[in-house]
Amino acid sequence: MTPQELKRLIDKGESETLEFKESLQEEALQTVGAFANARGGSLLIGVSDSGVPIGITVGKATLRETADRIASCTEPRVVSDVQVATFRSRAIMVIQVPEYPVKPVAVRGRCYRRVGDSNRQMSPAAIAEMHLASTGTSWDARPLPDKAIKDLDLARVRRYMSLATNIGRRSFAKGTHPREVLEKLELVREGHPTWAAILLFGKRPQSPLVQATVHCGRFRSETDIADDRLIAGAVVDQIDETMDFLKKHINVQFVITGKPRRDEIWDYPLEALREAVVNAICHRDYGDTADIQIKVFDDHIRIWNPGFLPYGMTVEDLYRRTHASKPRNKLIAQVFYDLEIIERYGSGIQRILDACKAAGIIEPTVIESTGGFLFTFRKATAQGTGEVAAQVTGEVTGEVAGQVVRQLESGVESGVESGVESGVESLTGNAVRLLLLGPKLKSEIANGLGKSKVSGQIHRLVNRLLEIGLIERTIPEKPQSRLQRYRLTAKGLQMAAQLNKAGHP
Questions:
Q1: Domains present along the chain, CATH in parentheses
Q2: What is the pTM of this model?
Q3: Mean pLDDT for all residues in the chain
């Protein structure tokens, strides 16, 4: 690797595929495992967390010893490409880690996954899911040895057969026995129902998965609960019952237009809310002991899904108009598709974004955090005056947001001396979306962006956002206060809408 190539790599900043370490300690070895469990990556030894090359001492046998050390502490053994490059007269070790085909790879008996620029130890459920995904199957296809056909509601299966045939996405001949259908679709294997069959057609869907529920609440504040409901039953029925709860607690306006029927304008587009609910129920991690949690506040709705995003997916992937479909629960997703609950694979998030844009409200944010990921819808009027709301929904010119994006891009591409990295630019959209949830401490911004600590990159990100007016301090008279939080300005709110509209990550 040439000095120029190394510089370009360092300038990118830490990410899902790049990490800096001052030495090859235990945390660096964990990164090797996390890279092997994801898309591979590069580990630079001799570079500080803030991206400053400090160098290392390299002997004749260093490269071979490093490769041997990595192989000896990983199972299956990871074979890495280890080389040394020189930058500003300092030796930097470059370790290229390939993606391992059959996952997960363990480091000293523990498995790690990559989230942003940090490593997180995987739970047993996440390990099982990763292995199933890498071998082409899914969790919901596993049969339950202690369950039998008698535990399924065959009348419900017949209704599914009739609806799917009428819709045209699946054809079942008259007189076909439900058991034959279940076996053909692999919802029953070796005489036992799968997890998918129990959740879709079980007489007692919450046995043994008591967490397969949706917990809905109407909140006046974080601690003041006005209404509370736990929705159980078959997962298909949970969708309509959850939507009934949401419609009960959001406002609707009736507009007379001269049509035979008056128009209904809801606080949030029902199509978008339904897609979000469907995504949560269809793609959640049912191995997690938590339930889906939906909280309705005066100015926003939060939909929290237990478990990480499906294996191989990132938040950035979700915001791309076209992305691969990777359903966590393949059999449940197939039945949802047959019933036209899912329109087509991989289109749900884009349908949500399009519906919100058409309704003139802020496009929702998706934040991956410890234990799950959070979908947040916000009212257009929640940000203050009508003028600001218009800016947020993109109804005014995007000139200001366009200027901001160009400032960031030009600052990065020109390699300005202030040290703004391309990694900062790549985090900007997610940081803005995160702050739509409300003011955050710098540590909360770091955690929300998938980082384990407030690194030099986070400091530069926050300073840059302050400099160009996207955010402001909540305690401006005490810039160094330990209670200091950061919130979006009107300019930042407009940028959030424009970035989503433009498809920026």
A1: 3-122 (3.30.950.30), 140-201 (no CATH), 214-383 (3.30.565.60), 386-502 (1.10.10.10)
A2: 0.63
A3: 82
